[in-house]
């Protein structure tokens, strides 16, 4: 979970967080809710949204309550500014760490990445500019990734003597396969938007001007479905993907049985037969 490595002037490099690195006026993470969709925004544009200990703690604090917020049914994760979704971990902060500090921060980071990854709601990352190291890993923690045509993705940790630890080695192999994961992790190379789409690293590739609207529209589409069924379907996919086929099918059966007993199922079938839009109870 590091910042990108490179020498080109347009790109952040190791320790290249700009000198102004204070959080925005609303803190390093903001949340806004429109209808049933929450948009969570990393808000350190002056530091290319690098992940400091404060930002990681704030991100966990924003995501964790969403699991029980009945008004929210889908989440978009994006960032402020125009140069980077997230340049990775804040190496300026880490430059003063001793070994103990690294391990203390590690627990804060694990909580933050886990909060995004384990969110029971559908999550969509809206990625632009640089998404490197921990920034790319935050996107990988989401269910779907919508990328702008100016996005640059990568996991450059090995170039700094580190190993991806926000889920990069595990989530990337599940998304794109072991060969692609080894290519990106072991070389630390950057991938431009078109190649990222070809490799399956992102799910939608859109013009930068259309990025947020596309991600929010996708989230709204999922939020419009039966919330109980959506949560259960996500649970079955996430759990079953790590199980043998028959065990995965058992997880699917459990999800189906729970959905059948839900008020959402009763409303969905009634609405279909009555030719009206459903009013989901959410239970």
Describe the structure.
- β1 and β2 form a beta hairpin.
- This protein is 43% helix and 15% strand.
- It has two domains: 29-223, Alpha-Beta Complex (2-enoyl-CoA Hydratase, Chain A, domain 1), CATH 3.90.226; 227-273.
- The chain has 283 residues and is α/β, with parallel strands linked by helices.
- The model is unreliable at 1-25 (pLDDT under 50).
- The protein has helices spanning 53-63, 91-94, 99-117, 134-140, 168-176, 178-187, 193-199, 211-223, 227-240, 245-260, 263-273, and strands spanning 29-34, 37-42, 74-79, 84-86, 123-127, 130-132, 144-148, 152-154, 190-192, 204-206.
Tell me the name of the CATH homologous superfamily of the largest domain.
Answer: 2-enoyl-CoA Hydratase, Chain A, domain 1
Query: What's the alpha carbon Rg, rounded to whole Å?
Result: 19 Å
C-alpha geometry: globular
Q: What is the domain total for the residues?
A: 2
Mean pLDDT score, rounded?
92
Number of helices: 11
Query: What name does CATH use for the topology of the largest domain?
Result: 2-enoyl-CoA Hydratase, Chain A, domain 1
Strand content: 15-25%
- How far apart are the termini? 37 Å
| Low-pLDDT residue spans | 1-25
Order of helices and strands: EEHEEHHEEHEEHHEHEHHHH
CATH architectural arrangement of the largest domain: Alpha-Beta Complex
- Structural class by sheet pairing and helices: alpha/beta
Describe the structure using short key phrases.
11 helices; six-stranded mixed sheet; four-stranded mixed sheet; 283 residues; 2-enoyl-CoA Hydratase, Chain A, domain 1
């Amino acid at each position: 979970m590091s910042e990108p490595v490179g020498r080109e002037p347009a790109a952040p490099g190791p320790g290249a967080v700009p000198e102004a690195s204070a959080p925005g006026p609303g803190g390093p993470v903001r949340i806004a809710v429109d209808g049933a969709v929450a948009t969570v925004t990393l808000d350190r544009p002056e530091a290319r949204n690098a992940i400091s200990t404060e930002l990681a703690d704030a991100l966990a604090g924003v995501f964790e309550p969403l699991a029980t917020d009945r008004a929210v049914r889908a989440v978009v994760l994006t960032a402020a500014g125009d140069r980077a979704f997230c340049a990775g971990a804040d190496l300026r902060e880490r430059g003063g760490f001793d070994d103990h500090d690294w391990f203390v921060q590690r627990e804060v980071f694990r909580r933050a990445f886990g909060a995004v990854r384990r969110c029971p709601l559908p999550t969509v990352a809206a990625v632009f500019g640089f998404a490197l190291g921990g920034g790319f890993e935050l996107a990988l923690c989401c269910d779907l990734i919508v990328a702008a045509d100016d996005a640059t993705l990568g996991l450059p940790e090995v170039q700094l003597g580190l190993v991806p630890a926000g889920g990069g080695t595990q989530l990337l192999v599940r998304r794109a396969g072991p060969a692609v994961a080894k290519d990106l992790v072991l070389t630390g190379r950057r991938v431009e938007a078109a190649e990222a789409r070809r490799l399956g690293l992102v799910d939608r590739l859109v013009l930068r001007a259309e990025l947020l609207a596309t991600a929010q529209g996708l989230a709204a589409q999922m939020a419009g479905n039966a919330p109980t069924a959506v949560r259960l379907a996500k649970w079955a996919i996430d759990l079953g993907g790590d199980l043998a086929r028959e065990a995965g099918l058992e997880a699917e059966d459990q999800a189906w049985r729970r959905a059948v007993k839900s008020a959402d199922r009763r409303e969905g079938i009634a609405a279909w037969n009555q030719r009206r839009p459903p009013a989901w109870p959410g239970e």
